Structures are given as structure tokens and as C-alpha cells.
Amino acid sequence: MLLEINHLEKVYRTRFSKEVTNALQDVDFKVDKGEFIAIMGESGSGKTTLLNILATLDKPSNGSVILDGKDITKIKEKDLASFRLKNLGFVFQDFNLLDTLNVRDNIFLPLVLDRKKYQEMESRLTSVAKKLRIENLLNKRPFELSGGQKQRVAIARSLITHPQILLADEPTAALDYRNSEDLLNLFEDINLDGQTILMVTHSANAASHANRVLFIKDGRIFHQLYRGNKSNGEFSKDISLSMSALLGGE
Ligand SMILES: Nc1ncnc2c1ncn2[C@@H]1O[C@H](COP(=O)(O)OP(=O)(O)O)[C@@H](O)[C@H]1O
Ligand SMILES: [Mg+2]
């Protein structure tokens, strides 16, 4: 088992009022190496809060997140950046590519920050660029790329560190149907290569590309579905039904 999330709670308190939000309540699940998990739920259900805690960008009020036997919620502030660089990959909604750098240097960035040797960087780039079919884009700047090309570059950058887990928060939210499908098919491909992926989404279609879907409601895990041998279409229908149940209450 790669990741163990134990009784996670997150309480937000506003500073000047007594208002309390229980953004996560007793969230408990395990992730095996090589899983592709989608986390679904309506707006405000706690998806981003959960992902941010798994990403060590935020701390829980209670509970633990054990990665390789170590509680990552207890990592000291000064060690967090290095921990993230070595262990986590991120795909952001707007891709966060730097227009001042060409594609090669954008992809190198996490390795530069981690002080990897140039030869090592080159050899990793060769393989990741081939996998994502962006070999001919390396000298371009992000503003010269199409949306679909940008997302390939962003995924390459997230994979070049060989992360234990790839985290994505609504990665298809800003994409049209075709680019969404391309991204999801890429996620399926890299998952088949063994990459563990956790993706937050509110789209049943996006979630149908995962192997397991966790449904979250009012900060609690409400239900989960495994894909089994179902096709994307069949699984997508099951997911939609679960979402309707979730929205409809008990
Ligand atoms: N920084 C914050 N301060 C106070 N409340 C927050 C903060 N971030 C999120 N919340 C609240 O926590 C709940 C879960 O939010 P979030 O995790 O962003 O949901 P989702 O990503 O599923 O839309 C919501 O009620 C939201 O208003
Ligand atoms: Mg969110």
C-alpha cells in the first residue's frame, strides 16, 4: 500500500465570527500503488481541501496521511518544498507554464530546483518527451503552443521527477471536450505505465477514466465505485447514478 489516509478532519474557522466549517470529517481510505482514483463531489464538498492536504499545501485539523510509512502532515515547513519535489507531481487547471522559459526549461524546472545533474535531466527529458509526443516542441515557448500541447508539456513537467503520486485538481475544467478526452487518455496511458494518480473532478465522464471513484459529500466519503471490467461508457453511467443519489440526499 502506498498511501493511507486516516480519520482526516479539517475545520475552518473564520477569524472574526464563530462560524465553523467542517470541510472534512473522518475521511479514511487507502491507495495502492498504481491506482487511478477520481474524487467526485459537488462544489463545496471538500475535494480541494482533501487534495491540498495530500499535496502538503495545507494541514489537517486531525488525522494522518501516511506515505511509505511516514506521516506527511508532520513534515516541517522547511522540508516541505523538497518533499514535494521528490514525491509529488501536480497538474494544475491552468497548467502554470512560464512564458519566459521554453518548453525544455519548463519541464526541467522541478529537476533544477532539486539540483539534479544535467545528464540525468536530459535522459529523463528524452523519455518523457517521447511518451508525450512533444519532442518537436522543446524549443518553443508556451505562448506558441495550442491548449492541447500545453497540457502535454504540463504533464511532462509533472512526470519528470518520477513522482510517487500525481495529483490533479479539476484538470479538465478549462478544456473543451476533445482536449479533455486527450488529457484523460494520457492519464490512462501513464497509469498503465504504473503511475499512481489522484484526480479531483466534478465530471462523470472524466471520472469514468479512473479505476476507482470516491464520492465525497459534506466532507465525508459517501460511497465508492470500482470500474472492474466496465467500459468508460458503462462506468460513466454508474457514476452519474451515484452522483444523482449523492445530490438527492439519502
Ligand atoms: N480557506 C478557507 N477558509 C474557510 N473556509 C474554506 C476555506 N477553503 C474552503 N473552505 C470551505 O470548505 C468547504 C470545502 O471547500 P473545498 O474543499 O474548496 O470544496 P470543493 O473543492 O469540493 O468545491 C466549503 O464549505 C468551503 O467554503
Ligand atoms: Mg475545488
Number of helices: 8
Unreliable spans are none
Overall, the morphology is globular
Which strand order do you get reading across the main beta sheet? 6-7-8-3-9-10
- Mean pLDDT, rounded to whole units? 93
- Class computed from helices, strands and strand pairing: alpha/beta
Number of strands: 10
> The biggest beta sheet, please?
6 strands, mixed
The share of residues in helices is 25-40%
Oligomer: single chain
Strand content: 25-35%
Ions and ligands = adenosine-5'-diphosphate, magnesium ion
Radius of gyration: 18 Å
Helix and strand pattern: EEEHEEHEHHHEHEHEEH
Q: CA-to-CA gap between the ends? A: 32 Å
Structure in words:
This protein is α/β, with parallel strands linked by helices and 250 residues long. The chain is built from 8 helices and 10 strands. It has helices at residues 47-54, 77-87, 103-113, 118-131, 147-159, 177-192, 204-207, 232-247; strands at residues 3-13, 20-31, 36-40, 62-67, 70-71, 88-91, 165-169, 196-201, 212-217, 220-226. Strands 6-7-8-3-9-10 form a 6-stranded mixed β-sheet, with helices on both faces. A 4-stranded antiparallel β-sheet has the order 2-1-4-5, covered by helices on one side. A hairpin with a 6-residue loop joins strand 1 and strand 2 (20-31). Helix 3 (103-113) packs parallel to helix 5 and helix 5 runs parallel beside helix 6 (177-192). The model has no long low-confidence stretch (mean pLDDT 93). The chain binds adenosine-5'-diphosphate and magnesium ion. Adenosine-5'-diphosphate (ADP) is lined by residues 12, 21, 23, 41, 43-49.
